[in-house]
Structures are given as C-alpha cells and as structure tokens.
Amino acid sequence: MVASNLRDKYCIVGVGETEYSRGSGRTTRALGAEAIRNAMNDAGLKPQDIDGMLSYHGGDSTPSTAIQYDLGLRPNFYMDCSGGGSSTEALVGLAMGAIEAGMADTVAIFRSMNGYSQIRIGGTGVRAAAPISGPDLMKRPYGLISAVQNFAFTFTRHMMEYGVTSEDLAHIKVAHSNHASNNPKALMKQRVSVEDVLNSRWIIRPCAHLLDCCLETDNATCVIVTSAERARDLKQKPVYIMGVQGRGTKPGGDFHYQHGPITRVAGHYIAPRVFDLAGVTHDDVDVTGCYDAFTYTVLLQFEDYGWCEKGEGKDYVRSGTINLGGRRPNNTSGGHLCEGYTHGMNMVIENVRQLRGTVDDYCPLAAEGIHTHDYSEGHCRQVRDAEISMNMGWGTPAVGSSLIMRR
Amino acid sequence: MPTYEYRGQLISISDADSEYKGYFEAASAHRLVVKKCSDCGLLRGEPGPGCPWCTSLAWEWQEVSGKGIIYSYQIVAHTVIPSFRDWAPFPIVLVELDEQRGQPDPGDGLRITANLVDADMEPEREENVAIGKRVEVVFFDGEDGFSLPQFRLTGEVPENEVWTHQA
Ligand SMILES: [Zn+2]
User: Fold this and answer.
1) Backbone conformation region of residue A200, classed left if phi is above 0, alpha if psi is from -120 to 50, else beta
2) CATH number of A10-119+216-231, picked from 3.30.1360.200, 3.40.50.2000, 3.40.47.10, 3.20.20.70
3) Among candidates A133, A154, A202 on the partner chain, residue whose Cβ is nearest the Cβ of B78
4) Chain A within 8 Å of B117 (Cβ-Cβ)?
C-alpha cells in the first residue's frame, strides 16, 4: 500500500447543522447560514478565517454568494456544485485541492435544503410536474421517477441473485433506529423491530417497505476543512483526513444497467483506491457511515467495499457487527433512515464527533468526552475508543464517494 | 417542439433531440429501434450519441425484434405521480432484448424500461411478473401520433428458471 502524500495533512475542524425537521418555516438561505455559523463556532473560527465555500445542490438550495453576505464572509474561492448523495466526501477532497492549490486556506462545505417542505427528494411536487424530456423519456412515461425506483432494478436483481429477503434488510433499519434512540437530534427516535419494518406499507415490491426508506427532511449541514497546521490552534481536537475518493463511477454511468453485473455498485471501484490512499485496511476501521437512502444501499455498499463477500451482505447486517457495541457500528446517529436525510453530510459530521469522543448523546458529560457506553434506549451512542472512521457515500448504483478519517 | 399528453404527464420531444426523437418516431410506426454503430457494428440499448466500445459518433437506427426477457422488475405499490394512482400496484420491467445478449462483454445486454401490460394495455397482474419470463414489444398509441413502447408476456417457455419474490 502507498499512502497519499496528503494523508493527515488536512483536517475537519468544525461541524454544524440546523434542526432536522419536516417544515423548517425558513429559507434554505437561513438554514445554510445557521449551519455554517454553528460549524464556525464549533471550530472557533471568525468570519475572516473562512475564505473558501463549497456547496452542492439539485436546484434546491441557496448559492454561497448569498450566504457569504449573511455571515460577513469574503471567499477567495467558492463553487456551488450540482450534486446529491456522495457529494460531501467528494467536496472534502476538492476543499483539500483548493487549499493545496493556494486558492483558499479554510473552506466551509455546506448543503442546505427544504427536502420535505419545498422540493421533495422523493419525486413529488415540483419534480413530478416538470414536462418529460431527454433521458426521462425512457422512464417517467412508465411511472418511474423516484430515487428508490431508479435503484429498484438493481435491488430486485440482487435479491434474485443472492437470496436477500425483506427481513434481512429490516435488520439495517432496526440497527439505525436503535442508534437514533440515543440521538436527541434525530427526527425518528423511536426504536423499531423487524416486524415493524415488514408491517409498514409497501412502496416498491420486492425491495422497499416504507421503513426501508429514509426520511425526507428540512435541514442544513456544514463541515469546515483546513490544514493540519492551522487546525492545531483551533478549539476542537482535529480530525485528520487520511484518504478520500469521490465521486467515483461504475461503467455506463447513468446507463449502468446496460452493462453487467447490475448488482455491482461504484464502491467496487472506489474501495481499493481509498484504502490505498489512507494506508489502512478494513480491520483498522472502528466506525462506518454507510449511506442509507434505503436499507438496500447500505447492504450493497457493505459488499462492494469489501466488508464481506459479494452476496454475504445479508449475513453481515444480521451479525451484530454494525450495531452499537458491535465490532464496527454503522450510522451511529441513525443516519438518513432515522436522524434525517441530508444527502450524506450528517454521517460525516457524526463520524467527526465519534473521533473527537464527544458525540452529542444523552450522557450528561458528553461534551467533555465522558460517556457511559450504555447503549440502551435514551443513553449513550459514543463508540469506545474510536480511532478511525470510514464514510461510504452513495449517489446512485453507479456513483459513490468515500472518506477515511482518524482522530 | 411536439408536446404530447400521456397519463396526465406532459411529454416534450425536441426536434433537436438527437437521442430520443428518432426512437419515438419509430415507435409511432410500431417499430422498436436501437442505435447501431456505423463503424464497429455494435448495437446499444441507450440511444446516446457515441459508441461506448469504439467512440464512433456515426450511427444509424436499427430495428430489433422486440423480443426478450424480463431482466429485473419493480412493482409500484405506492406511486408519487398522481395520474398513475389508478394503476397501482403496477409493474415496471427492465427488458433485455434477444439481440446482442451477453455481447461484447458477458454482462452486457440491450435493456429497455417499460410497463408490463396485458392484452388490454392495462398493467399485467403482479403474480404473472417474474425475472426470466419471455416478453415482446407492443405499442400504445396515444393522441397526436405519440406511441409508447410497452411489453407483454408471450407465454413462450423461458430459457432458464424464472424468479419472483412471491412465495
Ligand atoms: Zn462502435
């Protein structure tokens, strides 16, 4: 393995978010400003310290150049990129590149959306009302529009090839809901059982019940990237970026289903590269953040990132490994399935807090890093001695990103 | 720019749409077409401008038999499109055409999305949907000359064992 010469040279020094809600009653501009401000305060950075901004959006956010006014920032560099899931990790890499190129010193990356009350991710409202043209001509006339529908041919085919059942998938939701029960911020804190998932109404057969789907959410999120050198003077323990890849693709891109195997996802191509850059192996990783737009996206990524053999994801998610108290807990905040849908950034924020040892659970002294490690409902969600984390972002079966960090 | 209405949705096919206009013009004449590379001769299931195997930008439309198998499917129990609610639950299938199956790479195929419909152009019953079943193209003729390729079961004996999620 050859680790990158940029390994550990950059850090995430601040994280912040708004409330996760279904009806923010505010603009994406107001949400974005609050999330960035929270991350600045978390890091102990002043407006003049932030000279780079990056965001991603799907025509549903507010540009950096508006929010810069609201916080008195003057970026030497900004980009508002088109993107959704798996953009967070990719933009962390782009922030490193911008700093390395001398374009900026400290970059705030944000995502802001009213994903429930305005432009819904699920395909209803504005998205469904637009006239059909271009590649959508091959899908929307058939009633295929939502994200889960766009992925469903991959999911169903995977069920056929590897014998995955709805019950297997339900274990992912159960694990994430247990984690969310120890997260005061989570939109859905209630623990659910396998039966609850199986008894929830069908969205798409055979691969998605309602509780296999994430929660459309109004929120903004932010992470701040700067050099390790600058990080030393800031408020928080720096979290070092060991390796990052994004957004990597599989053959065919948007038309990946023309090539086989359609059950393979982009992580297959990303995994060897990100582990090489970070100079670590699977065994070194203590906590994961695996994009859970749907339970199935988690299972597919676990397989193709090599946490288990292809086809054994169904056993991996039942083994206890991904639960708090297990060998390598996944989505300890509850992720998109329970904390709220953010297009991936909340899982990076959560892992930053895990590595700091200051996850904001119900432990009275959590902010000081004192945790009970009692993972029963309403208590702790801090992973014991978490040293290295890995995020696996998902855009589509054909698009993904990954980020390995250490404390 | 021709605009059509189909199941309450507006469909807009630009005269400059070099990918899909010819596809739907052929459908109006009840022909299912794919693009054929004029240089290497390979067909492609997505009618893009370039050949994924040789980068040639020269192509012609090629009529195909319209026969194939269900490669994957989804039963839409809950639709977010209001005008499809009276259809739910309805099947959407990914059809793999007989032409060029497993070529040039073993996992490749010409794959097209459609609804699986019955003799009345209504959604096929869920219990009849299975991966591996034989299908053939049929054309739904809407108003103003718009036609939509759909697929229906042929009843032919499948090559391999079929798979369905139902017990
Ligand atoms: Zn060619």
Assistant:
1) beta
2) 3.40.47.10
3) A202
4) no
